[in-house]
């Protein structure tokens, strides 16, 4: 396989078919941690930052071939992983209770809210010119102080 397809496994799997059809949409799962560091999560933060650049690079590289690539960047989500992450942060002394999270982002994000954002980017005709962006699903967290 040429270097053209040496990406993450999912993109590598779908890109050849998208190129044949001359259209497609890739949605990467990122996090607000791509731009807002979280204590004790250096590697996680760094990989999410790389995810943002990955989406931008794919968007630019394949734009003329009808392929879009974006990233959704949610805040803390009410999932087993999200709840475990909050407990791990608390164990490190970080004030990451649901009450504190509610002050920062209003409430915990529901998985369906992230899915809706991803679906908009992936399949909505209204997103046809949205390419290389990071859609923050964060209830204004990134807009706050």
Helix content: 40-55%
Number of helices: 5
What Rg do the Cα atoms give? 17 Å
**What are the segments in which pLDDT stays under 50 over at least 5 consecutive residues?**
none
For this structure, the quaternary state is single chain
The structure class reads alpha/beta
Write down the overall mean pLDDT: 91
Strand sequence of the main sheet, in spatial order? 1-2-3
Could you name the CATH topology? Rossmann fold
CATH class: Alpha Beta
- Give the number of domains: 1
CATH level-4 homologous superfamily: NAD(P)-binding Rossmann-like Domain
Biggest sheet: strands, sense, closure?
3 strands, parallel
CATH architecture: 3-Layer(aba) Sandwich
How much of the polypeptide forms β-strand, as a percent range? 5-15%
Written overview of the protein:
It is a single chain. This protein is of the alpha/beta class and 145 residues long. It has a single domain, classed as NAD(P)-binding Rossmann-like Domain (Rossmann fold). It is built from 5 helices and 3 strands; from the N terminus they run αβαβαααβ. The protein has helices at residues 9-21, 42-62, 80-91, 98-105, 111-123; strands at 24-29, 67-74, 134-137. Strands 1-2-3 form a 3-stranded parallel sheet, sandwiched between helices. It starts with 8 loop residues before the first helix and ends in an 8-residue tail after the last strand. The mean pLDDT is 91.
């Amino acid at each position: 396989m040429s270097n053209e397809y040496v990406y993450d496994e999912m993109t590598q799997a779908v890109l050849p078919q998208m190129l044949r059809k001359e259209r497609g949409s890739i949605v990467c799962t990122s996090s607000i941690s791509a731009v807002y560091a979280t204590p004790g999560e250096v590697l996680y933060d760094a990989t999410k930052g790389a995810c943002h650049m990955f989406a931008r690079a794919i968007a630019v590289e394949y734009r003329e071939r009808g392929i879009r690539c974006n990233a959704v960047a949610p805040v803390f989500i009410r999932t087993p992983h999200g709840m475990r992450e909050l407990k791990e942060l608390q164990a490190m002394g970080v004030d990451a209770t649901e009450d504190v999270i509610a002050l920062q982002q209003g409430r915990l994000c529901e998985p369906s809210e992230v899915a809706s954002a991803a679906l908009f980017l992936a399949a909505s005709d209204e997103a046809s010119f949205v390419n290389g962006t990071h859609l923050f699903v964060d209830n204004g967290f990134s807009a706050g102080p």
